[in-house]
Amino acid sequence: MTQQSSLAKMVSFAIREKQMSDAGSRVPEFVSLDEAAAMKTGTRVTFIPGMPALYAEALKNICYVKGIPLIRVLHPMMGVDKETGEDRQARLYELTSQTSIPTMFHDAERPRNVWIEQLALAERIGAPASPKLLPDNFEQRAEVFGLCAVVLAEDGLVWNMRILSDSPLAQKYGYSEAASAAAPGKVAEVLSLIDGRLAAQEQRGSRYLVGNAVSAADVYWATMSMCVLVPPPQIMPLTRQNKGMLKYFAMNGQIPVIAGALTARIERHQRYILSTYCETPAVLGGDPL
Q1: 190 in Cβ contact with 150 (< 8 Å)
Q2: 3-state SS, one letter per residue, for 68-92
């Protein structure tokens, strides 16, 4: 290891240690959407207190690895305000032309709502000594984006998890009886792909999905895999807000075809990435149980 590489690792470790210390010392504060939109400096991301909404939690972990301090913003809930009769997400739509979580603001730049743009921004504004989550090597970069897509993009792992049963969220993702019936098999196929990839990497002496270092593929996968493989409370604490969600995620993992594709290797990788590189125990706000 070169002296420069060693120094970079030391600085990166110090950044994570400072973040972990700050996270553990206080309950996270949240600003309003209007306050966040009015700010001209800082990185602001929308969250629901107490809820590890998958894309928001993944972006939080990406930013944590990159050493990016975050201002947490209250993401408006779906539905109509009972007192005013107004759509609670109307202001969010006005600002971003969409309503999904998370929205990412940085300085006075335009908001980002799509994971691939959020990742590019995080890579650009991250601390200089932080791990590079998008490899310089374009062949490896193609592998990272491909793995991220089968997890995050349309018809990928999370997409199919959300149409396992009918709900308002499932309807947003194009729920139909036929699509729902096919979803468990597609989730299992992604799991098998990831497991095969990890097995091949182990043969090369690597604990990571691509190359010999942590990448966006590892962070996104480890976070999103919670939808079928719930980490222990030491990693994902239980709150009043998330207990139903985590119970649902655990039930997803018990669907026979999905359970058959979950392996000890997948679990080891998830726990290693989350506990080594990400904010653990996750700081969520809300009401701890």
Answers
A1: yes
A2: CCEEEEECCCCCECCCCCCECCHHH
Residue 233: cis peptide before it, omega within 30 degrees of 0: no
Q: Is 212 exposed, middle or buried (0-12, 13-18, 19+ CB in 10 A)?
A: exposed
**Is the pTM value of this prediction over 0.70?**
yes
pLDDT in tens, 5-58: 343 344 344 444 444 444 444 589 999 999 999 999 999 999 999 999 999 999
Domain boundaries, the chain: 3-125, 138-277
Angle at 123 between CA 11 and CA 143, to 5 degrees: 110
Q: Model confidence over 80-109: pLDDT tens digits? A: 888 888 999 999 999 999 999 999 999 999
pLDDT for the residue numbered 135? 97
Instruction: Classify domain 138-277 by CATH number.
Output: 1.20.1050
Q: ∠ at Cα 142 (137, 147), nearest 5°?
A: 130
Cβ neighbour number for residue 165 with a 10 Å cutoff: 14
**In angstroms, what is the C-alpha Rg of the chain?**
19
Residue 215: Cβ within 10 Å count: 25
Four-point Cα dihedral 115, 287, 19, 247, nearest 10? -50
Contact 175, 163 (CB under 8 A): yes
Fold entry, domain 3-125: Glutaredoxin (3.40.30)
Question: How does pLDDT run across 127-183, given as a tens digit for each residue?
Answer: 999 999 999 999 999 999 999 999 999 999 999 999 999 988 888 888 999 999 999
